[in-house]
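FORM 7B: Structural annotation worksheet

SECTION A. Query
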Amino acid sequence: MRRIVYGAGVIVTTDDVADALMQLTAALANLGQTAHVRVPAAADTPDRHHDVAMIVGPGIPMLTEPAGWQGEEPDFSTSATLFRMHPAYPYPNVPGARTLSAPAEVDNWDPDLDGY
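SECTION B. Predicted structure
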């Protein structure tokens, strides 16, 4: 289990969800975008949980740290999968695949070499 510190709040969720959320948050920040997400948070007992609404993206600091947990971890795998399905989630480049980021324009002009 991981504790996510976000703004003035703290939530506890699974390692899988915390990792997927951190990857998505970093990708959104890199693209200069934000997203509204719902994060499953564990309550004080293993059989209870609730969803926390968050805005993630650039300029919003987030960190995760290990959290002590007694008992069986809840199954939040669906939420982790949904984070990984977000269009901004970072995946290795696949030839021909659509991406949100614009291709970088390369300027090969070198004024010291008259453009060569």
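SECTION C. Observations
The first helix runs from residue 15 to 31. The mean pLDDT is 84.

SECTION D. Sign-off
Analyst initials: ____
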